[in-house]
From TrEMBL:
It comes from Parafannyhessea umbonata. Keywords: Hydrolase. The keyword Hydrolase applies. Pfam families: Abhydrolase_6. This is Alpha/beta hydrolase. Residues 39-269 form the AB hydrolase-1 domain. One of its GO terms (molecular function) is hydrolase activity. It comes from the Bacteria.
Length: 275
């Protein structure tokens, strides 16, 4: 399907251990003469695949595949009640298999945790991984202030105060406001996306990557941090993650959501690395 024609939108069924697990909304855009493997884009918390609208436009030579993670956008909730990180990794694996069985993956924030988990288990599905500010805490000093924020966020979630949890886990870490206004597509499912993230995806606080498995996979990892993220826990944890994951570090424009706010600059940087 040539770029500029009607996009391919599908609902992809994912099967878990006990039957149907989710139906994922997938946007597949294929240029007339695609270069390289498919580029699968995995979004983070509180958003859906519309987060990558700008980046996909800035990479016209690549086949770009975006999907709404379970409970987000136009995808279903977990049909079997499984909201675990392993279920999310199965979802990503299903998307990669559906588009050819091997891909370059670009994953942001919580989506990068999903991608790292799958890389631990099924490295053959990856050629390369771009991980944009994954929220991993295992390399931080136990007295780091982020752990106090996480504790307060968990208490807020237990009292069903998701807005307080959102503040503690984002504004306290300088994620900041969007540089450009949100589009209608980004706002369409925003409330649902936020509810899913702050009620179903608290496993993000506890994930510890299997660094030996990731380094041993032979899959190159590009670990990206925003220029404006200096001082956040992402920056405080950068050296640990690069060493542990065997990752190459690169500084991107903007803050935590720089891939959305500066898609042209980010596309140029990762396209060079993905060649």
């Amino acid at each position: 399907m040539a770029r500029g024609s009607e996009h391919a939108h599908t609902l992809l069924g994912v099967t878990g251990e006990h039957g149907p697990s989710a139906r994922l909304f997938v946007r597949d855009e294929v240029p007339a003469r695609p270069e390289g493997l498919p580029l699968v884009l995995v979004h983070g918390a509180g958003v859906d695949s519309s987060f990558y609208d700008g980046l996909a436009t800035c990479m016209p030579a690549r086949r770009t595949v975006r999907y709404d993670r379970r409970g987000c956008g136009k995808s279903t909730d977990a049909l079997d009640g499984d909201w675990s990180l392993d279920a999310q990794a199965r979802d990503l694996a299903s998307v990669i298999r559906a588009v050819g069985g091997r891909a370059d993956v670009v994953a942001h924030s919580l989506g990068a945790v999903v991608a790292l988990r799958l890389l631990e288990r099924e490295p053959r599905l990856f050629r390369r991984l771009v991980a944009l500010e994954p929220p991993i805490f295992s390399g931080l000093d136990p007295d780091d202030e982020v752990f106090g924020n996480i504790g307060r966020a968990r208490k807020a979630l237990a009292r069903h105060r998701s807005s307080t949890a959102l503040y503690l886990t984002t504004q306290r870490e300088s994620i900041g406001e969007a540089v450009v206004p949100y589009s209608a597509r980004e706002l369409e499912h925003r409330e649902r996306n936020l509810q899913t993230s702050f009620s179903r995806e608290t496993w993000a606080f506890d994930y510890v990557p299997d660094c030996d498995a990731i380094r041993g996979s032979g899959v190159p990892v590009l670990l990206c941090i925003g220029r404006q993220s200096d001082g956040t826990y992402h920056a405080r944890n950068l050296d640990f993650l690069c060493q542990g994951l065997g990752a190459t570090p690169v500084v991107m424009p903007g803050g935590h959501n720089g891939v959305r706010d500066y898609p042209g600059e980010v596309a140029a940087a990762i396209q060079d690395w993905l060649r």
